[in-house]
Amino acid sequence: MILPIVAYGDPVLRKEGENISADYPKLKELIANMYETMYDAYGVGLAAPQIGLAIRLFVIDTTPFSEDEDLNSEEKAQLEGFKRTFINAEILEETGEEWAFNEGCLSIPDVREDVFRKPKIKIQYQDEDFKTHVEEFEGLIARVIQHEYDHIDGILFTDKLSTLKKRLIKSRLNNISKGNISVDYKMRFPAMKKKR
């Protein structure tokens, strides 16, 4: 089932997610719905807060990035078919020299900005069967994980921009929170909740 994606301005996007256990209600169905919602919106990642749930869960499929012409065959192979579910994730370390990449977010449509992040991460998480993994990722996969991980900590990519950049996009962000934007996927805007 395709769920509405919560738009910028909704308080749930600012909440730190709670850890969940294997008996979380309808978890397998929720994960399946999150993937379906992400694919419907042509995303590469989706975190539970983006569908209105303040829990530590996000899904990723970097396959669309593998079609980028600028990547070498090794990079394309890493991104192709990289599909993971991250539950109760904790980034243990981030290393390397920060690099910029133009990021966007399904909750903040039509806003894209360069964000600096470290290239390598070590992360502990549980998969959909609640098996614990500790893994290292780098490059674009690490970037997508960091972006979604921020969501479960109540952080948005726009928080990482300079004061000047934040000022420049402020009116666009306000328009998104009011629902004054056209998107080709299902969204829920904070302004819609206030109307009865």
Order of helices and strands: EHEEHEEEEEHHEH
- Please summarize the sheet with the most strands: 5 strands, antiparallel
The helix-and-strand class reads alpha+beta
Strand numbers in spatial order across the main sheet: 2-3-4-7-8
Walk me through this protein's architecture.
- The chain is of the alpha+beta class and 196 residues long.
- The chain has one domain: Alpha-Beta Complex (Peptide Deformylase), CATH 3.90.45.10.
- 29% of the residues lie in helices and 29% in strands.
- The two termini are 25 Å apart.
Secondary structure elements and pairings:
Blueprint: E1 5-6, H1 27-40, E2 45-47, E3 57-61, H2 73-79, E4 83-95, E5 99-105, E6 108-117, E7 120-126, E8 132-138, H3 139-152, H4 163-178, E9 187-188, H5 190-194
